Amino acid sequence: MTSTPHGVGRSLRPRPSGRVAAFFDLDKTIIATSSTFAFGREFLHKGMITPVEALQMTLAKTTFMISGMSGEQMDTTRDQLTNLISGWQESDVRKITEETLHTVLVPTIYAEARELIRFHQQAGHDVIIVSASAEDLVRPIAQELGVYDVVATQLEVKDGRYTGEILRYNKGASKAASIAKLAQSRHYDLSASYAYTDSDTDSSMLSAVGNPVAVNPDRMLKKRALKEGWEIRTFKNPEPLFTAPTAREVGIGTGIVAAIAAVTAGGWWWSKRRDLGS
Predict the structure, then answer these.
(1) Of 67, 146, 174, 233, whose CB is crowded by the most CB atoms within 10 A?
(2) Residue of 244, 230, 198 lying closest to 69 (CA atoms)
(3) Counting Cβ atoms within 10 Å, is residue 262 exposed (0-12), middle (13-18) or buried (19+)?
(4) What is the 8-class DSSP label of residue 215?
């Protein structure tokens, strides 16, 4: 008999009229980090980014983990990161993520999320990861979890290289649209389906299903969840790590480290990124 994690299936509901799905956000919901920023050190070691860019990515990850990002900040980050990777070999990125997956991302998987995914799979539910991160970064961690349905941001690739263009940006309302499209093609009963996320930017994703769950919610999502009566969960294992590389590790001066850290703490680092990197 399948055990039921706390909060799942607590109340009696009508029998679903169609298939049931469980939609999971990735960052801060399944993993205790940002999949976008997690590989900064690895890209640095391969010579794909500069030491300053590596430190900026790590500090941006720390800011994201502490306070999250607004929709506007996410858009700014999207533009800056796509400019950064323009010209990179897609095969290089895939090789790095596959080779370092078990040292970089697997240790950050919440045990509670892994258990919950397993529960849904054993219950016969389709599990789908719906993320704003690039598909090349999302799919390896999904496969580690035995999840093969991924809806994520798609980057354009020509002649094996990223062009810096985005074919689909899977953020916010786009996640809800993706869920609706899947429900139509696969005959999901959304009233019986589940969604899990940490960010208020994904509130439309939660509104799309009958069983919305706010996981480690940011301030705005917690407020909305309390108002709407949505379930709130806290995943604690593992604890998020905010370790930034030292000046010695990245080979730049301590003055630059201090300057970047100060700007990050001020909350407006992203708007100044190009000035700092020039």
Answers:
(1) 233
(2) 198
(3) exposed
(4) E
Say if residue 97 is exposed, middle or buried (CB neighbours under 10 Å; 0-12, 13-18, 19+): buried
E strands along the chain, which residues? 21-24, 126-134, 149-158, 161-168, 194-197, 211-215, 231-233
pLDDT in tens, 8-17: 544 445 566 6
Q: Give the span between the Cα atoms of 232 and 226, in whole angstroms.
A: 8
> Residue 167: phi, psi to the nearest 5?
-85, -35
Looking at the DSSP bridge assignments, the partners of residue 126 are 21
Note whether 14 and 37 are within 8 A (CB): no
Rounded Cα gap, residues 189 and 184, in angstroms? 9
Q: φ, ψ for residue 273 (rounded to 5)?
A: -55, -45
Q: pLDDT, tens digit, for every residue of 40-56?
A: 677 777 777 655 555 55
8 contacts 210 by C-beta, under 8 angstroms: no
Distance in angstroms between the alpha carbons of the first and the last residue of the chain? 59
For residue range 135-157, what is the model confidence (pLDDT) as tens digits? 888 899 999 999 999 999 888 89
Catalytic: 25? yes
Question: Residue 140's closest CA among 39, 12, 250, 4?
Answer: 39
